[in-house]
Amino acid sequence: MDTKLKVGVIGATGMVGQRFVTLLADHPWFEVAVVAASPHSAGKTYEEAVSGRWKLDEPIPENVKNLVLLDAADIEAVTSQVDFVFSAVDMSKDEIRKIEEEYAKTETPVVSNNSAHRWTPDVPMIIPEINPEHAEVIKYQRERLGTKRGFIAVKPNCSIQSYTPALTAWQKFEPTQVVATTYQAISGAGKTLEDAPEIMGNVIPYIPGEEEKSEMEPLKIWGHVDDDKKEIVPAESTVITSQTLRVPVLYGHTAAAFVNFKQNPSKEDLIEALESYSGVPQELGLPSAPKQFIQYMTDDFRPQVRYDINFEHGMGVSVGRLRTDKIFDWKFVGLSHNTLRGAAGGAVLCAELLTSQGYIEAK
């Protein structure tokens, strides 16, 4: 790409927004031109606004420090300076749906980390290695919005990426029933361990809304674009039930999953399917794509957050402990980085995919 696309990050001061600006600091295709947040932060430099609440180990990027924050609600001011935006705003779901559509209607594509539009039927929810073809629904969304260039695309829930890639690699064996319990890091709530003393030495057995997302979002990802309905129709062949727990870990969502199959795969079949699985991002060599999407680990004590969370710079998924079960056919453990693959990194990869497909381009 000869000229970098200009990007706005709305909701730039929160943990996911911070992750966006660090990932984009040296990106070969994109450069941060605008940072925006709440009216409280507007008018401050980015460095001033995040002073005392910078949550990442990486320093604030030099090219963003002195950018003056705009009010995310001042849509004209933001969109006049960018080719597209990443959304990480912290609002109610109704407010997010409204503001993201308002951005899209200015002919500005929106790639969102938020959950508000995940079940809007004509909004693609993309894991680039799994369902890149869902971008085809954008033409119908543009019809509804009355746009030629603007649209909304979203990435899915962070925790499902610890087990959905494995289940996708095994689709040819026809998984019918899945039990998935996820052990989710505190950064999934936008906090550090210091921000959440209640988690130390503790496990919290409920994360509002997460179980519904865990059970339903993979079905939309495995669904198809219905040209008659002009929407994505979720798959129905797999039933998923889930429990979600918050654990005293900073980064990394771990899943313990049990699976029944219609077919009868061997352990060797399942491992080979994991290790050979790749998608369009690998074929195209997209900048944020892991070379190996899924790794299988033979050590019974892996994957572990401490050692494996940064596999492929946090963009790969680790699977281990694949074994037969007394009730289900097979069981396994999966691990993914929740703020990289599961949040900002996944959204950046999605934007790279949409750029390569021609949906995002310079204004």
UniProtKB/TrEMBL annotation:
EC code: 1.2.1.11
SMART domains associated with the record: Semialdhyde_dh
Record carries keyword Oxidoreductase: yes
Transmembrane segment boundaries: none
Pfam families: Semialdhyde_dh (PF01118), Semialdhyde_dhC (PF02774)
Highest rank taxon of the organism: Bacteria
GO annotation (BP), single: methionine biosynthetic process
CDD domains per record: ASADH_C_arch_fung_like, ScASADH_like_N
Keyword annotations of the record: NADP, Oxidoreductase
UniProt GO MF annotations: aspartate-semialdehyde dehydrogenase activity; NAD binding; NADP binding; protein dimerization activity
Domain Semialdehyde dehydrogenase NAD-binding residues, every copy: 6-138
Class in the EC hierarchy, top level: oxidoreductase
Record: active site: C158 (acyl-thioester intermediate), H253 (proton acceptor)
NCBIfam families: asd_EA, PRK08664.1
Similarity comment text for this entry: Belongs to the aspartate-semialdehyde dehydrogenase family.
Protein's name according to its UniProt entry: Aspartate-semialdehyde dehydrogenase
Organism: Paucilactobacillus nenjiangensis
